[in-house]
Amino acid sequence: MKDLELFSVIQNDRPSDELVWKFAGEDFNNNTQLIVMESEEALFVKDGVIVETFTGGRYTLNTSNYPIIGRLQRFLSGGKSAFSCKVYFIDKAHKLELFWGTDSPMQIRDAEFGFMVQVSARGSYSVQVKDAKKFFNKLVGNIKTFTTLELNSYFRTVFQTKIKTKLATVMKEQQRTILDMNTELEKIAEEMTPDIEKMLEEYGIRLVNFYIADISIPDTDPNYAMINEAYAQKGVLKIQGSDFGRLSSKELLKDIANNPGAGGVATAGAEMGMGMAAGGVFRKFSKPNVFTNATRKPNYNRK
User: Greater confidence, 10 or 74?
Assistant: First the structure.
């Protein structure tokens, strides 16, 4: 038999952005040295099956130390006993942030005012490989490398579906107007985290952090102005000393529909016996920059 190149040292020298890296050689000397960093795990694969795993440390691979080597031996090269398999290194260190975002707006009914509006959301998450064998079997297979970019791309569709479903549920359960959701980003993320964790665990991945950076309504949504006006009217009525809780959303929306624009809000207030003058009740409302931590609240002061 022609002598083959046998590797006497197996170690990982992959680029830092790769979660999985396959060692170049597949034929090794008996007594080959295996070096595994503390932040990774090495998988020995034969015929598509993981036959042995190694955590951080230095190992001398021979039949006396690891019986599995005997089952991997298949030839002699230059009088030396040799074994053959594929070796994959799995990076189990924390990774940089990966980003998610809804690919299209969600149709959400505002819990307080009843409007259907389009809502988009975006944020980030960070992950860590928890179960190397499960991760390899679920996602890697026979490819040579697997980068963080590929991981993010793989999960993009799955994340969007899960996030859109859960976000709609949580926002409905909050029973608050969508314009107030900018103050609830952290709470909403916390409520969504268990579902995201469960999804990732199926792939041997641990969720380290999950964040929502922004929830927004497009300016082009036809109901955006209506819900802004309803929100503004609610604030005016509170300033005037009215018990807003006694007014139903239907009553507010009916008034707004019959009296569009800022003048309509003032007229609606007069019709409800608030004694507001149409021209001097409040300043023109500035459109709030909703759904970010830098949200500006409308100025409800009188002129």
Answer: 10
